[in-house]
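Example (one chain per record):
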Amino acid sequence: MPELLSRFDPTLVFLVLLPAALLIAAWGLQMACGFAAVEPPDYWQSLLCVFLVVVANLLLRFWINVSVVDPGFWSHAVWPLVVTAAIIAVMVRTGPLSALVVTACQGAICAVLFIGISMLSSAISSML
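Predicted structure:
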């Protein structure tokens, strides 16, 4: 995928792909709620939840890079997972364990979509 995107202006790619990624992640959150047997929120609430997760994780990542002297596994993997699950638990109105299951399912759905899009991009760029 990078070879296909490298031909375009980075600002344009950011402005196009960020909203698309948020929309797909909101859809993935609804699908993950269905997999986890949790009542899925409506689409706009899912979009707000995904946006809050992105902002919270960006702020957490900034704080870790500025304040934590020796960041390890906890600060790079566990804290973002806990923050994401907490936001999903509040926004979807479910328990913490169900929110962890929803987070894991959403991560798997988005990973499969990303790998599929990357494979499609590689196939298209090899044909061009």
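Caption: The chain has a mean pLDDT of 88.
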